[in-house]
Amino acid sequence: MQDILWTMLFNPNLDNPQATQPLLVRSADISVDMMFDTVKLEEVNPESQYEAFKKLCPGKKVEDGVVLQSLDAMPGQRVIKCHYPLDLMPPDLLDRTKVVYVARNPKDMVVSFYHFYKVIKVFDYKGSMDTFIELFKDNDVVYCPYWPHIKQAWQKRNHPNLHFIFYEDLKADLQGELRKLNQFLATGLTEQQLKNVVQHTSFSSMKSRGDPLPDKGLYNQELHQTTGGFYRKGVTGDWKNHFSQEMNQEMDKWIKENIGDSGIPFKMD
């Protein structure tokens, strides 16, 4: 979604030279700032992020926020990624800007999250998937708790400045979902331009261009080679290849206990 939005706004004709920059340099993730003062991040040294910061913010201090200050220095319209829930964002956020919220069914999401935790050296997770799922359900991994996060956005889904979208719908009909985004963003793209965006931001195309930050030290290189790296599979229903019958029953129970009467229409396949 991050690259889709950037491409729709700034590269619908696929001729913007800035598109060759790493994704997380031209469209930063503001929730990464909380990791820049950790020992782990110092060990892996995301040099591309630091270089972008130095160019945009000469003389500024890293400890005052690498991404925050970089985004503040970027001119004009920006695409900002964030993993925070709405209640950790400015209370008037939806009154001042457009927000696209992407949700994924919790079974596929936790499988993807597990692989992410293993391949990214900042986390460097060594445990089993069973243990990770328990940690996730107990809100003991970053960006949790899951249910308040998604419920807050779902409750705001009818706000004119919030576009709620399911990952499964993107995979089922990418161009159709881009038409909805085109209307939401008022980008006025033609069908050909939307086709350009579809081609450029398909999972295989993004994977072929490399990781969103190119710094090899960020990734467990052995896992990067064997499991697919940052861009692993990009499919729906992959949880079926990972869950035992017992794990699936436990996840079903957890989902039933927490989804309540929210009416969130998850697609598990």
Automatic annotation (TrEMBL):
<dbReference type="InterPro" id="IPR027417">
    <property type="entry name" value="P-loop_NTPase"/>
</dbReference>
<dbReference type="Pfam" id="PF00685">
    <property type="entry name" value="Sulfotransfer_1"/>
</dbReference>
<dbReference type="InterPro" id="IPR000863">
    <property type="entry name" value="Sulfotransferase_dom"/>
</dbReference>
<protein>
    <recommendedName>
        <fullName>Sulfotransferase domain-containing protein</fullName>
    </recommendedName>
</protein>
<keyword id="KW-0808">Transferase</keyword>
<dbReference type="GO" id="GO:0008146">
    <property type="term" value="F:sulfotransferase activity"/>
</dbReference>
<feature type="domain" description="Sulfotransferase">
    <location>
        <begin position="61"/>
        <end position="263"/>
    </location>
</feature>
<comment type="similarity">
    <text>Belongs to the sulfotransferase 1 family.</text>
</comment>
